[in-house]
Amino acid sequence: MNMARSIEPAQVGLDPTRLARIDTHFGRYVDDGRLAGFQVLVTRRGEIAHSATYGLRDREAGTPVEADTLWRIYSMSKPITSVAAMMLWEEGRFELTDEIGRWLPEFADMRVYSKGSTLKPYTVPAVEPIRVWHLLSHTSGLTYGFMQTSVVDGLYRAAGYDLYPPSDVDLAGACRVFGELPLLFQPGTAWGYSVATDVLGRLVEVVSGQSLDTFLREWILHPLGMIDTRWHVEGADVERLAALYVPDPATGRAVRHDRLGDLAYAKPTLLSGGGGLISSAADYHRFTQMLLRGGELDGVRLLGPRTVRLMTRNHLPGGGDLGTLSTGGFAETTLDGIGFGLGFAVVDDPVPSRLPSSVGEYYWGGVASTAFWVDPAEELTALLFTQLMPSSTWPLRSQLRQLVYSALMD
Q1: Predicted pLDDT of residue 1
Q2: Are 41 and 97 found together in one domain?
């Protein structure tokens, strides 16, 4: 796909001079060494209004960011897995209120952390089973080992599940371990960023009878023409993959991090629907356009429009926001005024976050500072790709919103 601008920005209500501020602003991050390079794509009414690449995909090799550069999208895998699950839901294969223990018996009789330490935790029985919608909305009580905010995530780390799982465990084996660990909270009572989407990927496998990689390839990636999205990179495509960086604690400059980055060159044992995919701007652009168009793109329909609307409403308990219901720290979103749907953060009220978003905008990002959002009210999408961990290092996402929305003129 040609990622060049497809229309004059003014034709879709965007000021080209103001859009150019995006490149100038993020170019400073590259010029002073905080980022190696970046790629940005902004669309309105289905047309590419701004497309930019700047800097190097691999600073040490001296190779530039190009239109077809490959990026580790990490948690931007979650919306794709969520769409997969909802495609099965549309077929009547399960209900959102179904207990997941029906298909994954390791989650049938969960216990919930009450008090104590990682060496001696005290737990109580779950009063509510984990249901499918709990997985999609991160209200299941599951957690992540890398959160570093609770005794329960310490138990995950003790079991070998930190930022990456043990190298010899597959998805089914990981789910068996998660089922043995206590929940952080009673299902449906709070919000906690977690391995829930990995468990959802396992649910997709059991319900569909296909491995997650096969299901995604046959039912989402190939039908949408997402030819670059995959679980690892090999052969000639190795040169297209951007290097992974972390900030130097003393200078803030991006420093190469091959220990984690090189994992992208080997086929993973565990297919992580929550964080395992690699993609390109062209591919994820097609995914966001499918969502913006209510589940269809170029004659290929993955979801019905009402399903997309259901996924992008706030499903948090009592209609609350992340500011009141979140249990731990994470960097993919602000908190106040932000709800969570079935696979996406959802803007309920943009004012508390002090950002110019629209009500009903939905979005997510990845730990290496990638991000996207879809704004149905403005018929607008935006994509940001770079490779800096963690995503909390610089306020790239909020700044991109400032720059994009200030370019809207109609």
Answers
A1: 47
A2: no
d(CA 164, CA 167): 8
Backbone angles phi, psi at 349, to 5 degrees: -150, 110
Q: Distance between CA 390 and CA 292 in Å, rounded? A: 28
Packing angle, helices 171-180 and 196-208, rounded to 10: 120
Residue 218 lies in a domain: no
Please report, for residues 107, 193, 323, the alpha-carbon distance to residue 146 in angstroms, rounded to integers and kept in the order given.
22, 11, 21
Residues of the domain holding 96: 83-212
CATH number of residue 206's parent domain? 3.40.710.10
274 & 378 share domain: yes
CB-based contacts of 373, cutoff 8 Å, min separation 6: 357, 361, 362, 363, 381, 382, 401
Question: How many domains in the chain?
Answer: 2
Q: How far is 43 from 7, CA to CA, in rounded Å? A: 10
Q: Which of 196, 194, 77, 184 is nearest to 136 (CA)?
A: 196
pLDDT tens digits for range 206-264: 999 999 999 999 999 999 999 999 999 999 999 999 999 999 999 999 999 999 999 99
Mention every residue, 6+ apart, whose C-beta is less than 8 A from residue 164. Answer: 260, 263
Say whether both 241 and 384 belong to one domain: yes
Q: Which of 212, 236, 254 is the last residue of a domain?
A: 212
